[in-house]
Amino acid sequence: MPPIADILFFVALLVAAGAVAGLLAGVFGIGGGAVLVPVFYQVFGYAGIPEEVIMHLAVGTSTALIVPTSIRSFQAHRKRGAVDMDLLKGWMIAVPLGALAATVVAAYVSSAGLRLFFAVMGLVLAARMLFLSNRMHLGTELPGQPARFLTGSAIGLFSGLMGVGGGVFNNTFMTLYGRPIHQAVATSSGVGVLISIPAFFGFIYAGWGEAGLPPFSTGYVNWIAFAVIFPIAMLVTPYGAQLAHRLNKRQLELGFAVFLLFVSARFFWSLYGG
C-alpha cells in the first residue's frame, strides 16, 4: 500500500483537477474531460490498476463526471440566452448515437489504442487552437442535412472515445461557420449533456464484469474518484460560465493548447518511450 503522504498527494491532485475541470466546463463548455482523463490515468496507474483497463476506467469515470458538470454549465449558459437551441434539437439523435458508438468501439479497443487516439486528437486540437483559431471560415451558415447529422455523430464518437464533453469539437464546428465564440461555448455545454448521458451508461455496460477493476467500480466508472471530484467541479462550474463572458479567449485557447500538447506528449511517451 502506498504511504499515506502519497495517498494524500493524489487526493489533493484529484481535488485540484476537479476545480480546474469545473472551471473549464464553464469557460470552454468542454466538460473538463481533457483534464480529468490524463489525471485519472496517472492516479489509477499509481494505484496498481492493470494496464488493460486503466485507460478505459479513466475515460469512463471522466464521462460520468461530465454528466453533472455539463448539465450545470448548460443551465448557466441557457439563463444568459446564449445557447443555440435549434442546433441542439437537431442533434438530439445524432450526437447520442455517436457517443453510444464510441462505447462499443472502446469495448474492443486496447488501453494503448485509446491512449494513442487521445494523443493524436490532442495534437490536432492543439494545432487548431494555436494556428487556425478564428482564422479559417467555411461559410456563414451552418451546413444542412445530412452533413449536420453526420457532423453531430462524429462529434459524439470522437468525444466519447476521449472521455470529453465535445466542446473542443463543437466550438471548432460552429466558429468555422461564423458563429460567435461565446455562442459556440454556450451551445457546447448542451452538446456535453447529449454526449455524456448515453456514454455514461455505455461505459458501465462495456466494462460490466471486467477483470481488474478497482473496488467501488460499476463497469468502467469508479465511484471513489467520482465522489472526490464531483462536489468541487459542481461548485466551480458556474464561475467558469461567468469567466467565459469576461476573459480573453485567445489567451485561454493558447493555455489549453499547451496543456493538450503536454498531455499528448505524456501519452506518446507511455506508448513509445520505454
Automatic annotation (TrEMBL):
The keyword Cytoplasm does not apply. The chain crosses the membrane at residues 12-41, 91-109, 116-133, 153-173, 185-208, 220-240, 252-272. Pfam families: TauE. It is a multi-pass membrane protein. One of its GO terms (cellular component) is plasma membrane. It is found in: Cell membrane; Membrane. Keywords: Cell membrane, Membrane, Transmembrane, Transmembrane helix. InterPro entries: TM_pro_TauE-like. Belongs to the 4-toluene sulfonate uptake permease (TSUP) (TC 2.A.102) family. PANTHER family: MEMBRANE TRANSPORTER PROTEIN HI_0806-RELATED (PTHR43483). This is Probable membrane transporter protein. It comes from Agrobacterium albertimagni AOL15.
